[in-house]
Amino acid sequence: MLLSDKYPFISNYFEKAIENNRLAHSLLFYGSDFDVQYSLALEIARILNCTGDKTDNCQCLNCKWIREGTHPAVKTISRIDNKPDDDTSKTVISVKQSEMIRNSLLTSSDFVRVFIFCDKDEEGNICGLNRLNFQEPTANSLLKSIEEPLGKVCFIFLTRDKEDLISTIISRSQCFFMPSKKREDYNFTDILPVFKEYWLLKRGDAFTLSENLKLLSEKLPVTEMLTQMQHYILKLLKENPKSRFLIDDMGAIEHAKKEAALGMKNDIVLDELCLTIIK
């Protein structure tokens, strides 16, 4: 199915913005479906560079290049893509990459240059940016290029939550939430033995729950464990949609996931979380 069929409103919005020369130089897409975000970024790059009729099936050379991932002016920037030869970093988008981008903009181009910033896992799947893989020095080194773009250029940032990026990137970008149309797997079987009916626990049981979760983390990654906890609460919310404490607990777990992603020790993350949700 074409992106324009799945998301007709937002596809039409960007087509009109490009047609009227009103597309922002910096775009930020956020949500859980990174494949859709990346597809939209490529579609914007395609329309910007299309020399044909700009339809979904256009066969001009630029459109073919972009579909094949070989267009010289459309670059995916991740911790594993488009690294300078002397860049040895493996876990972050580096300052050297941002310098490479700035230097490339000093030369003229007949194309609209599009830089798509994202993360990738070891299998090459598209993932979101956060403050761990897209750190403040790198983000700050791009600010002038975003504020005062040289030539025709568009920066596109992909993330789960826009607050995962530093405020200076957010404030300089036009932000769009991309809803997921994937069928989600709401599995929570692994955490159920220790987390079922957690709200019945007494305040003094918070550290007991934390210790049980720490034991579980020896065989289940903390991020997966926290995701299963959210899935369990989502199931409860469907049955009790106005439950304030469930909504608050969902937010507390999301905060714990961000702390874990930023490298905070798992023991501290779990202790803080359990003290928050066990009243």
Low-pLDDT runs? none
Q: Indicate the radius of gyration in whole angstroms.
A: 21 Å
Shape type: elongated
Mean pLDDT: 90
How many strand elements? 7
Count of domains: 2
What is the spatial order of strands in the main beta sheet?
A: 2-3-6-1-7
CATH-defined architecture of the largest domain: 3-Layer(aba) Sandwich
Task: Count up the helices.
Answer: 13
Strand content: 5-15%
Derived structural class: alpha/beta
Looking at the structure, the CATH topology of the largest domain is Rossmann fold
Rounded to the nearest angstrom, the distance between the terminal CA atoms is: 47 Å
Helix content: 40-55%
The named CATH superfamily of the largest domain: P-loop containing nucleotide triphosphate hydrolases
Walk me through this protein's architecture.
The chain starts with a helix and ends with a helix. The protein is α/β, with parallel strands linked by helices and 279 residues long. The chain folds into two domains: 3-177, P-loop containing nucleotide triphosphate hydrolases (Rossmann fold, 3-Layer(aba) Sandwich); 192-277. The chain has helices spanning 3-6, 8-19, 34-49, 61-68, 95-104, 136-141, 143-147, 167-171, 192-195, 206-216, 222-239, 244-261, 266-277; strands spanning 26-30, 74-77, 113-117, 119-120, 126-127, 153-159, 174-177. It is built from 13 helices and seven strands. The protein is 46% helix and 10% strand. The strands form two sheets. It has a five-stranded parallel beta sheet, with helices on one face. A two-stranded antiparallel ribbon has the order 4-5. α11 runs antiparallel to α12 (244-261). The mean pLDDT is 90.
